[in-house]
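ugh ok so i messed up the first submission bc i forgot one of the chains. this is the corrected input, ALL of the components this time, i swear. 598 residues overall. if the numbers dont match what u have on ur side tell me asap before i send this to the collaborators (the ones from the other lab, u know who)
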Amino acid sequence: MSVLIVGSTALDSIKTPQAENPRLLGGSASHAAIAASFFSPVKLVGVVGEDFPKPYIKLYQKHRIDLSGLQIQQGKTFHWSGEYEVNMNNRRTLATELGVIEHFSPTLPDAHKSTPYVLLANIAPALQHHVLDQMWKPKFVIVDTMDLWLNIALDDLLRLLKRVDALVLNDSEAHQLTKSDNTLEAARLIHKMGPRHVIIKKGEHGSILSNKDGLFVCPAYPLKKVVDPTGAGDSFVGALMGYLASTRGNPEKNLRRAMVHGSVVASFCCEGFGVKRTTRVVKRDIQKRVRELEALARF
Amino acid sequence: MSVLIVGSTALDSIKTPQAENPRLLGGSASHAAIAASFFSPVKLVGVVGEDFPKPYIKLYQKHRIDLSGLQIQQGKTFHWSGEYEVNMNNRRTLATELGVIEHFSPTLPDAHKSTPYVLLANIAPALQHHVLDQMWKPKFVIVDTMDLWLNIALDDLLRLLKRVDALVLNDSEAHQLTKSDNTLEAARLIHKMGPRHVIIKKGEHGSILSNKDGLFVCPAYPLKKVVDPTGAGDSFVGALMGYLASTRGNPEKNLRRAMVHGSVVASFCCEGFGVKRTTRVVKRDIQKRVRELEALARF
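and heres the new structure output, hopefully the right one now
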């Protein structure tokens, strides 16, 4: 089945101690859509400016991403630039130019409205609501978010949490949202806010799923070298949703394996700048790493 | 089979944001010996002063720990006092009084010298060498260490690494030892220093085993509340070694499950001050948490 993904579509200028890469294809929806495309057909909903490079459109198309929900507007594409410290765990934003995303209103083509799987990738909660308002009985809805929305749009986000099946967020965001620095307690408090499934990402330490079946501890795929972690979380949730949409029966039964596939695609994302490594991956590469994760979690 | 454990035997005064507990039974050998005792007969090698409380001797005996290698000397027992911050991840040492441990020389009773499993729990590397010098063809030797020895006794430690089967250390120590902040790279560099098995502890994020079979990612048992993490690492390696000694055949084949048992006993350790919670555990409690870890790692 197909996946609808709304989120940011951006140009990222990324500086690491090793290199500088201007105007890469970035944004939560770009990373998530490419990651999901390995498993299921993807419909991308977003906005770019007239300056958006043609090769990036071609890249989406190479991944057979449906672009009928991608608006191309007069003005500039959202541009983010950031810098990573030596250990790649801390990053700081150097500049943010909102461009056309500032007044983005995601209006869905009619054909999109009955998409069964909906991923509300990281973007303003008001826009995530707006997309959900247009959907017709989706089968499974996941929302991703970031610290910015916890700071400036918490009410919108809290209302959204009552409308979704799963929330994905990282550990520091979970602690910010719940005021608890214990992962179990944070998950318990988030369940009370609405989502039946809570997925807390812990970067190189993997991720945790909490739902009525208890906990699942999902390992991260261990990497010898991290080139650029930008978009790893978006790739994780994109691949997770793409995998879920490719399975039959109750999606809740397949969440664990979906997270493992998310872990693997996120690991590829970290091995190159922007989506450079991810777009060179083939299904076989993913399956190989999934088998490796199986082997290293077995006891 | 039985396990010989050498390490520190101490009185710990521990302050947390919630409580203050003076002169608890502590030290690496105490935690490790009690943890190992759930699985195998334990021979403790250490030193205490005349002030060492009788009830603590009784506690060792309750766990059927062979105390013929425990020296009771004129003077005071090693005393450590420390304080934890709110999140329980950072601690600072308030005072260290070495007492009788300053001139400790671990001379083994003859009956100890052929113990097949040897755990060199955290203590000065020179003393760990001294114990190993007296052993007769041990089957499996694990060494644990701490940042202090990396700072003041690195040469002794490096020589020791050529004499042991496994090194256990935490992630910050691994990075200090290898100058690499990548876990895989750190493990690779430590293998070159000697140990066939490298176990890197990551606290609440679990632990990693690296050996010729590849990697094993061992989950931590998730806790709702951490009361006092002092001794969790010692409990981990003690239970690991105790479990290993209880298995048949090649110990290398049983290392993964040994680590899982280590994880579980360490989780009990964190739920009480000193060894208070651990000493109330029965085998059934451990087996229950091992089954829970199996369930939450399955995908």
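quick check: Residues 3-297 of chain A form a domain with the UDP-N-acetylmuramoyl-L-alanine:D-glutamate ligase fold (CATH 3.40.1190.20). that seems consistent at least. Chain A has one domain: 3-297.
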